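User: My collaborator and I are trying to settle a disagreement about how two of our proteins should look. Neither of us wants to argue from intuition anymore, so we agreed to look at predicted structures for both before our next call. Could you fold the first one, then the second, and keep them clearly separated?

Assistant: That sounds like a sensible way to settle it. I'll keep them separate. The first protein:
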Amino acid sequence: MLSKAPPLRLQARVRSTNAFNQSQSASVESAASFDAGEDPVTARSGGFASATIAPHRAWILCTLLFFATALSFLDRQVLSVLAPELMREFGLSNTVYSRVVFAFVLSYTVMFALGGRLMDALGTRLGLALSVGVWSLASAAHALARGPWLLGISRFFLGVGEGPCFPAATKGAVEWMPPRQRALAVGFANGGSAFGAVLAPPLTVWWAGLFGWRGAFAATAALGLLWLAAWQLAFRGLPPAASSPPAHRGASFKSLLARPEVRRFMLARFFFDPVFYFYMFWIPQYLSRE
């Protein structure tokens, strides 16, 4: 004989018990992920790890990103402010000076383009630390220059270090902030460039007056080393996921180029940047002569 089906009330109880057990299992799994230093939501979704960082710690990291972009613009402008003095001391013509400047622009352009891929490979914490470390050493090398060749080599490696800075700042701000605050964080982190550009002329003149032009380059290198120390301290006590968030697949470069707003932005920067850097590298000389 066929057995009778269990009463409907009993079936409902069984379903309720199964649902409760599944809920408990998910809770235990989430707790285990949390104890391992991993955000449960991030662990399951493969998304960004912003939930692993308390809001105040995330803003501390974004503030350090702000100072990184500020240092980037400060360091690159020291040569421009000191150019009249350096050209007199080394007997540089405008042509030779332009080649020194070009060494920076060339390496900076290449590394800016490759910086995002480099940050994806190394992670923002390590990648940006290497970036600031390289350009700080390059800034210090300027102080040892005895002629245009070492000056040009120093500028080249300054561009190598500074190129990945802005991709790293954008990546870090997106990784560590919740979605509703990401636009603000990205703007804040990248806004350090304007702060550094404004501070560069008076600080450079002040340092050069106190320590000479070589001391001005050494001072910017020292600021970079201080930033590196603060950067390492800022990650103390954070889970590993905060330093190396889970990789996730973004849009392809081809799909980005298919978007008209991306093409318009690239075209605008193509025409704007040459003018901007021309003024950055040549205006101090013009003003000193006039």
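The second protein, kept apart from the first:
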Amino acid sequence: MAHVTDKPTMKRIVQRPILAWVPAGFFKQSLTLNLNECGQRLPKKFGTLDLGLNLGTNRPNVDLIDASIPLDRQGWYHGSISRIDAEKILRPLSEGSFLVRNSESTRQDYSLTLKSAKGFMHMRIQRDADSGQFILGQFSRPFPTIPDMIRHFCLNRLPVRGAEHMCLLEPVIAQIL
């Protein structure tokens, strides 16, 4: 190890890039893909360099989903709008934007309309006659309320064919005209 004895030499050492002193291979490029949850970013490991790639770990706006508020008072519940109107609302918005509306085909059901990379998805929310709980599509677990369901799918991937890679990211608040 060399000793620094004069100021000009010390100045040259300070001006060197700091990475020159880090052992080769210390910083590794890191890409984390979490296939289960959407709402959390996994903790970074020491010695990794975050590339800013965020595949499915976006932080949804969960604060707008208060499960203690009834559905008809939720801002993202749009009531009796058509599938066409729901698509018009979502068209200029980003992938993962969603709203809940009354089903056009079955009076007691609801529809979750979601913007995806390929267009729009309209998923039926049904109330189970026996338990009174709500089910999204055919394969979701039951939920006591639709706000509970929406909050869950803001943090977890959708159990619907064609949307398995997606979470609900941005609730679209109804505008009163």
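Some points you might bring to the call about the second protein. Residues 9-23, 25-36, 39-60 have pLDDT under 50 and may be disordered. Residues 76 and 172 are 5 Å apart (CA to CA).
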